[in-house]
Write a structure and sequence with these properties.
The complex is a heterodimer of chains A (415) and B (96). The longest helix of chain A has 21 residues. Chain A is globular and about 65 Å long. Chain A has a domain of 151 residues: D-Amino Acid Oxidase, Chain A, domain 2 (2-Layer Sandwich), CATH 3.30.9.10. Chain A has ten helices and 18 strands. Chain A has 415 residues and is of the alpha/beta class. In chain A, strand 14 and strand 15 form a beta hairpin. With 96 residues, chain B is mainly beta. Chain B has a single domain, classed as Folate-binding fold. In chain B, strands 3-4-5-6 form a four-stranded antiparallel beta sheet, with no helix packed on it. A two-stranded antiparallel ribbon of chain B has the order 1-2. The chains are: A alpha/beta (415), B mainly beta (96). Chains A and B meet through helix 8 of A and helix 1 of B. Bound molecules: flavin-adenine dinucleotide (FAD). The site of flavin-adenine dinucleotide has 41 residues of chain A, from helix 2, helix 3, strand 12 and strand 16.
Chain lengths: 415, 96
């Protein structure tokens, strides 16, 4: 190590922030009113709204890794509400609306950018499906229309209108489609929560859930045992593993989801473009990089490695949409573990264990739901277990009643 | 490309195969409750461990069982389902 650096490191006036965004780590207390497992977007937002709207501040968020280093750090930040079912559209619309005000609320630039999302219909069946989705969206005050090839050419002049030999027949033009800086959302919620007294404990892994007579009373961690009035698990890809500790199974399978980004180029693409027929989506960031993604891996795995076959598949199809991209170079590639449900809707609310609440099944689509998931989970906790109307359809026991909320078609290639 | 060894066709690229879910004990569809059936269809262990799974070799339409580690992705063993299942299940009777 260079001597100058060592000297600098030992000096008193080392530039520690006087007013750090997050308080320095403290010891774990023996008891919290609420323990939230997982400091991803959902766990952080839940803590924030608990403190802000309900004055519940004796809250600890326990995170096995580092702050928002899971899927919150890995998603491609698509925000949209053009789903298919009434339950889905009303839930996600509320989240999109909350996003619009977050920068003001945090007093922090979340780089919210409403560019619109264009989903391409490359078959007659897709045109029919999109017509239905645009009508459902309008019914819930969404700004979504079915548009034709001329309008699409105007929106995205660089698009190949016969990509992969599948002519673009129409598009679902969702003007509310947006992106935001995912890390900023996490930091905004984390800062707002800790300012109100919430504790965030990183590198604190929950290794067991203590259940007595069907009631959760605490958790065991690598830093000792913590008792809790209420426990919420918000651990995305690891949902089934934690549920097993609490003694039940979930209707979830964990699959890797990969994404990648190219070198930056001049701005050419304003809307977020996705092609369900070609299983890929393409968007350009404010920095000019092109973010590319597709469906999840073909089989379940708890590993965030990225693979060549997935890159080949996504890129082959992306180049069909935008042929000039063939000359670009990839800068980064990564993967996260997505907790997939069979109906592509989340699992929220109560669990078979008393005082143990679920925020799971977010698969490839949970970033956009961060604000509304946090708000409704906080309501659930503050009311002592009364499930808010907005998330009633997403209860885990819907599977036992065969009442699924099917969003597969509206989710698979768009997230 | 990752290689999966099919008990019928030998070692093949993994993209020739389709994942078919965990191997589970199926409740008797004629006898079980809706809840038991839902549990069988929708709920999974989804653990980090060596697990038994159904796989299909798509071009030949052949179903078999693989034992695979769900974190390292190491495939330990593949074999014909007859090693575990020795009876054909008759679905035509269900719901009659
Ligand atoms: C490549 C990719 C692209 C995506 N694109 C989009 C998109 O465009 N739009 C969209 O809406 N969604 C998208 N998603 C999905 C979205 O990122 C997730 O659904 C969402 O982030 C999940 O909620 P979370 O932020 O709380 O999860 P996470 O950030 O994963 O948080 C869960 C946390 O729990 C911690 N944890 C797990 N187990 C334990 C334990 N035992 N003890 C303590 N802590 C534990 C983890 O370390 C992790 O930090 C994408 C996901 C990926 C992987």
């Amino acid at each position: 190590m260079p001597f100058a650096l060592l000297k600098y490191g030992l000096k008193d006036d080392f530039p520690f922030e006087k007013d750090p965004d997050l308080p320095l780590p403290t010891d774990l207390k023996r008891h919290y009113d609420v323990v939230i497992i997982g400091a991803g977007g959902h766990g952080l937002a839940t803590a924030y709204y608990l403190a802000k709207y309900h004055g519940i501040t004796n809250v600890a968020i326990l995170e096995m890794g580092y702050l928002a280093g899971g899927n919150m750090a890995r998603n491609t930040a698509v925000i949209r509400s053009n789903y298919l079912t009434s339950e889905g559209v009303s839930f996600y619309s509320e989240s999109v609306n909350m996003y619009k005000g977050l920068a003001n609320e945090f007093d922090f630039n979340i780089m919210y950018s409403r560019r619109g999302q264009l989903t391409l219909a490359q078959s007659e069946a897709a045109v029919r499906g999109f017509r239905q989705r645009s009508e459902v969206n309008k019914h819930f005050d969404g700004d979504t229309d079915l548009i034709g090839p001329d309008d699409i050419r105007q929106l995205v002049p660089t698009l190949n209108m016969n990509a992969g030999g599948l002519p673009v027949l129409a598009g679902l033009w969702h003007r509310d489609g947006a992106t935001a800086r995912h890390d900023a959302i996490a930091w905004g919620y984390a800062k707002g929560a800790t300012q109100r007294g919430v504790e965030i404990h990183q590198q604190t892994e929950v290794t067991d859930v203590i259940v007595e007579n069907g009631r959760a009373t605490g958790v065991k961690t690598n830093r000792g045992q913590v008792n809790a009035g209420v426990i919420i698990q918000a651990v995305a890809g690891r949902s089934s593993l934690l549920a097993a500790k609490a003694g039940f199974r979930m209707p979830i399978t964990s699959y890797p989801l990969q994404a990648m980004v190219t070198q930056p180029v001049k701005p050419f693409l304003d809307p977020l473009v996705s092609s369900p027929a070609l299983h890929c989506y393409v968007q350009q960031t404010g920095r000019g990089e092109i973010v590319l993604g597709g469906g999840s891996d073909p089989y379940p795995l708890y590993s965030t490695r990225s693979t060549l076959p997935m890159k080949e598949e996504v890129l082959t199809n992306a180049v069909k949409l935008f042929p000039f991209m063939a000359n670009l170079r990839l800068l980064r590639q990564w993967g996260g573990i997505a907790d997939m449900t069979s109906d592509y809707s989340p699992i929220m609310g109560i669990s078979p264990v008393e005082n143990y609440y679920l925020d799971a099944g977010w698969g490839t689509w949970g970033f956009k739901a961060t604000p509304i998931a946090g708000k409704t989970m906080a309501e659930l906790v503050a009311s002592g277990g009364i499930v808010p109307d907005l998330i009633k359809p997403f209860s885990m026991e819907r599977f036992n009643r065969f009442v699924q909320v099917n969003e597969m078609g509206a989710t698979a290639a768009s997230h | 490309m990752k290689i999966l060894t099919c008990p019928l066709n030998g070692p093949r690229n993994i993209n020739e195969f389709t994942y078919g879910g965990e191997v589970k004990n199926m409740p008797d569809p004629n006898e079980c409750s809706d809840e038991e059936w839902a549990d069988y269809v929708f709920f999974h262990d989804n653990l980090v461990a060596v697990v038994k799974e159904w796989w299909l070799h798509s071009p030949s339409g052949y179903w078999f069982i693989a034992e695979r580690h769900t974190a390292s992705d190491e495939i330990i063993r593949t074999y014909d389902p007859r090693e575990i299942f020795n009876e054909r299940i008759e679905f035509s009777q269900v719901g009659v």
